[in-house]
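Researcher: Please translate sequence to structure tokens.
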Amino acid sequence: MYSVAQRKDQAHSDGVWGLAWSKSQPQDRELILTASVDGTVKVWNWDDKNSSLSHRWTLEGHQLGVVSVTTNRAGDLAASSGLDGFIKVWDLNLESFIKNIEGGPVDVWTVAFSMDSSHIATGSHNGKINIFKVEDGKKETVLGTAGKLP
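Model: Translation complete:
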């Protein structure tokens, strides 16, 4: 059994497909990011003491639905992937867009930062893992998963 602790009406105009929870050390804040088929990522402040969410800002720019969102370990960067085939990198401290990385139409179903935030890995529809360098957006490696990884 469960109960709804808090309801956010009209938080997104379509379903939420991705979610990330981040704690930023310098600001000592917790953020929850929601990725939606409505084409947006919403950033929410999490108040653990009161178990409540408050909308902070909306990240816009994907042309189609957003299917995945992630943050780096430091909590200062986010990456989102959309059905438009793009990865977008965001600065969570400045609340701003940093760059687009073109991933391809079926190659960015899920995203994750490397431990040092220098790379982004994407999972694709065809089972491949793509590794992109954040600095220049270039695809560095493709790993096939139809069997054992090298």
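Researcher: Any highlights?
Model: The chain has a mean pLDDT of 85.
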